[in-house]
């Protein structure tokens, strides 16, 4: 099978029912947009965790700020908390504090371990959050919704006809078989490890387990061995699973296919006749050529040769190195009977089922050992002499052919609101689905059931057997020589293999409906119905498939959660937290702790250093950001002994003029030594004694 092409992938919002109405919301977009979204999500997560950490640090500081005297370790820890450094930075500084104070105070480690753990956990949580935020955007093996303008059923339009002999239809069947055969062999296997090519459908396969039993027909027609019958029953399969549909609960559909086969007697129901007497030859006959006739029912449209259900050329059987298959079918539905090929004998009489007869001509297939399989039975020894020095004993089949009779039954179900599902009887495949046979079904359900019916009609046991046998894989080469061990139940493997092929074609056929059959065979475009019913249009919009790459899916819920949390933590930290500080100052319980939070701020600590140096006249001492009056210049803080510096326009001893980086208000300038005053409105400076005391505090706003 091939993956759905990018051009047929629906872009934008849709809801994946499999994940629920809330979690299933996704936005399918191109790779570029998805990559940008991943980057934005990473930024949002970083912003959110940063502001959340600020809130955590604020709470920690408030809980510890009880106002009691404490040692230097505690006070430095409070100062570090007040900086609200990033978790990793705070962890590093916290370790430094512990290391410096470990021998200078008591229980330094015990008083530090909580923040060690908290910062480490928060840093790890930040990494995890960043990683998980990337899962908001799926980048591979995505469930996508198919959207194609060519969607629709294969129906004859006005002015043309449509039949099995149509070349476009035959071309499509050939391509469908070429895709389905390897898919069935590789993907319908037990176990969870399947090749990558199997993951193009929402569910790669369904379990098909054979069950052995007695003859499903009259005992007299089955070969006499233990349990000559086998059944492969799919059980009721949800169309949302196996076909990848996106139907809501009240619109769900289910389908069941049950195939029962039995190994039939051959010699008792077959005769030899002269090929020249048979009027339906398709090639020139060889002298003395004989055919083997199988008598399992009356073949239609053959006149006096009606008793010949199938025939095999014995000449070809002696020169063909490999298996060949021939089939005939009888439909059970009266409306389909016109397409039946034969009418079975009483021993094969079947009620409420479709019947298929499969003849496998065993021909000149050679085996290196006797074959005990009752269908491929081979016990005729032959001394094969390839040269004077090369000979061996090989074994040929006991009879030129083997016969298998198979009955197929089908069951269709649809959900109903407030009621149990409606199901048909397990019976033959109906001819059509309509509101009469399914009175409570919605238009969408009618369209879906009809599509399942179309898929079942186009791929039957009749078609599956013709695609070949799994036993051919045991040939040593193309010469029809089986050297590998041949199991005694290979015939069961063949029946199961045909069913796997049928289900694989179901999946491909139904997916092709959504993409458009013309996407596979352009010549089918004129046979695709364009005047779709409401249900058929809805059916075009429910096909899910798996897209390995080329697009991205953004989870709407995940995106909303990340954006909401980022916005919440950011706004709470920037706005709400300020409101709490403002409100808390009016409450006796919170006011002292909030004041301590403010005073441990880096700007307030800086103010205290300048005041200790007797620099600046400060206002707004009880707010987060203090300020000096009139933009007074301040000295650069230094580890040296506090000293005065030039904070105004002045002249050094060497005559150089010093101008402060930040200008001050024009007028009287007070030097830091409070002895020299310059009036910058004049060109000449005059020395006067300052009447303004250094460090004098003024009310806020002055």
Automatic annotation (TrEMBL):
UniProt-annotated stretches for the region Disordered: 680-702
Keyword Transmembrane belongs to the record: yes
Organism whose genome encodes this protein: Cucurbitaria berberidis CBS 394.84
Highest taxon above the source species: Eukaryota
Comp. bias (Polar residues): 680-693
Keywords annotated in UniProt: Membrane, Transmembrane, Transmembrane helix
Listed transmembrane segments: 38-60, 80-101, 113-137, 554-583
Protein name, entry field: Uncharacterized protein
């Amino acid at each position: 099978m091939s993956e759905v092409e990018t051009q047929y992938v629906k872009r934008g919002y849709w809801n994946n029912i499999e994940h629920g109405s809330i979690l299933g919301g996704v936005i399918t977009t191109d790779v570029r947009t998805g990559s940008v979204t991943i980057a934005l999500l990473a930024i949002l997560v970083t912003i959110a965790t940063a502001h959340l950490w600020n809130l955590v640090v604020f709470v920690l500081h408030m809980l510890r700020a009880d106002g009691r005297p404490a040692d230097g370790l505690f006070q430095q820890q409070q100062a570090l908390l007040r900086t609200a450094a990033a978790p990793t930075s705070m962890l590093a500084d916290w370790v430094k504090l512990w290391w410096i104070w470990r021998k200078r105070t008591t229980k330094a480690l015990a008083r530090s371990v909580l923040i060690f753990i908290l910062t480490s956990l928060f840093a790890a949580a930040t990494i995890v959050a960043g990683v998980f935020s990337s899962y908001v955007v799926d980048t591979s093996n995505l469930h996508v919704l198919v959207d194609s303008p060519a969607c629709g059923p294969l129906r004859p339009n006005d002015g043309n006809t449509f039949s099995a002999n149509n070349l476009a239809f035959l071309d499509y069947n050939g391509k469908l078989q070429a895709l389905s055969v390897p898919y069935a062999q590789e993907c319908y296997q037990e176990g969870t490890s399947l090749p990558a090519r199997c993951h193009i459908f929402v569910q790669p396969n369904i379990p098909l387990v054979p069950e052995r039993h007695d003859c499903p027909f009259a005992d007299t027609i089955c070969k006499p061995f233990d349990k000559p019958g086998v059944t492969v029953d799919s059980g009721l399969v949800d169309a949302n699973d196996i076909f990848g549909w996106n139907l809501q609960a009240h619109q769900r559909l289910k389908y069941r296919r049950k195939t029962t086969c039995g190994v039939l007697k051959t010699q008792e129901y077959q005769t030899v006749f002269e090929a020249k007497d048979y009027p339906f030859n398709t090639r020139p006959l060889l002298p003395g050529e004989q055919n083997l006739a199988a008598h399992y029912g009356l073949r239609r449209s053959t006149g006096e040769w009606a008793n010949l259900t199938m025939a095999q050329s014995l000449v070809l059987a002696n020169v063909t190195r490999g298996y060949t298959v021939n089939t005939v079918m009888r439909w059970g539905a009266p409306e389909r009977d016109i397409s039946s090929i034969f009418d079975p004998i009483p021993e094969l009489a079947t009620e409420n089922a479709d019947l298929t007869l499969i003849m496998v001509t065993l021909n000149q297939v050679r085996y290196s050992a006797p074959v005990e399989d009752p269908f491929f039975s081979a016990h005729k020894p032959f001394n094969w002499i390839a040269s004077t020095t090369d000979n061996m004993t090989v074994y040929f089949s006991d009879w030129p052919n083997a016969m298998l009779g198979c009955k197929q039954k089908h069951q269709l179900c649809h959900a109903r609101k407030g009621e149990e599902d409606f199901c048909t009887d397990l019976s033959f495949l109906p001819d059509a689905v309509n509101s009469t046979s399914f009175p409570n079904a919605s238009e969408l359900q009618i369209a879906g059931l009809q599509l399942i019916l179309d898929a079942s009609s186009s791929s039957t046991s009749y078609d599956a057997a013709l695609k070949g046998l799994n036993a051919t894989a045991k040939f040593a080469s193309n010469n029809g020589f089986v050297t590998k061990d041949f199991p005694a139940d290979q015939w069961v493997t063949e029946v199961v293999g045909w069913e796997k092929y049928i289900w694989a074609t179901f999946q491909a056929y139904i997916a092709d409906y959504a993409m458009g059959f013309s996407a596979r065979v352009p010549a089918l475009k004129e046979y695709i119905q364009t005047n779709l019913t409401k249900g058929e249009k809805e059916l075009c919009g429910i096909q899910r498939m798996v897209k390995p790459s080329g697009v991205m899916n953004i989870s709407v819920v995940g995106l909303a959660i990340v954006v909401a949390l980022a916005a919440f933590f950011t706004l709470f930290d920037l706005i709400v937290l300020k409101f709490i500080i403002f409100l808390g100052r009016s409450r006796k319980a919170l006011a002292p702790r909030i004041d301590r939070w403010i005073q441990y701020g880096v700007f307030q600590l800086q103010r205290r250093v300048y005041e200790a140096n007797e620099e600046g006249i400060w206002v707004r001492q009880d707010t987060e950001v203090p300020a000096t009056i009139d933009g007074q210049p301040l000295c650069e803080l230094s580890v040296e002994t506090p000293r005065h510096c030039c904070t105004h326009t002045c002249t050094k001893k060497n005559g150089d003029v010093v101008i402060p980086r930040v200008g001050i208000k024009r007028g009287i300038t007070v030097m830091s030594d409070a002895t020299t005053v310059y009036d910058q409105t004049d060109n000449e400076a005059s020395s006067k004694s300052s009447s303004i005391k250094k460090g004098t505090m003024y009310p806020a706003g002055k």
